[in-house]
């Protein structure tokens, strides 16, 4: 099959060493929790903060 090519580059590790930045700041997360507790829809909260509904569900742990 021939010789192996150069090793693939890997992205930065997630967690403490870097990786993707948080979609919501701690302050935004607290606001989102408050809005959800007040009966706001997940779709509305996601639109307000410019994130996906999945992010809201994941961060609110609902």
Explain what you see.
The chain has 62 residues and is mostly helical. The protein has helices at 26-37, 42-49, 53-60. The chain has a domain at 24-60. The protein is built from three helices and no strands. Helix 2 (42-49) crosses helix 3 (53-60). The longest helix is centred in the middle third of the chain and has 12 residues, at 26-37. The protein is elongated, with a radius of gyration of 18 Å. The relative contact order is 0.14. The mean pLDDT is 85.
SSE topology sketch:
Blueprint: H1 26-37, H2 42-49, H3 53-60
Helix pairs in contact: 2-3
Terminal residue distance = 50 Å
Percent of residues in helices comes to: 40-55%
The coarse overall form would be: elongated
Radius of gyration: 18 Å
The number of helical runs is 3
Largest sheet: none
Q: Mean pLDDT score, rounded? A: 85
Which structural class do the helices and strands define?
Answer: mainly alpha
What is the number of strand segments?
0
Task: Give the amount of beta strand, in percent.
Answer: under 5%
Helix/strand order, N-terminal first: HHH
Note poorly predicted spans.
none
Quick take:
Helices cover 45% and strands 0% of the residues. It has 62 residues and is mainly α.
Question: What characteristics describe this protein?
Answer:
single chain, mainly alpha, 62 residues, 3 helices
């Amino acid at each position: 099959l021939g010789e192996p090519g150069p090793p693939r580059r890997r992205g930065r590790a997630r967690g403490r060493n870097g990786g993707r930045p948080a979609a919501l700041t701690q302050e935004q997360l607290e606001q989102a929790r408050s809005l959800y507790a007040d009966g706001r829809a997940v779709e509305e909260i996601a639109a307000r903060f410019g994130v996906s509904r999945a992010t809201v569900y994941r961060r609110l742990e609902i």
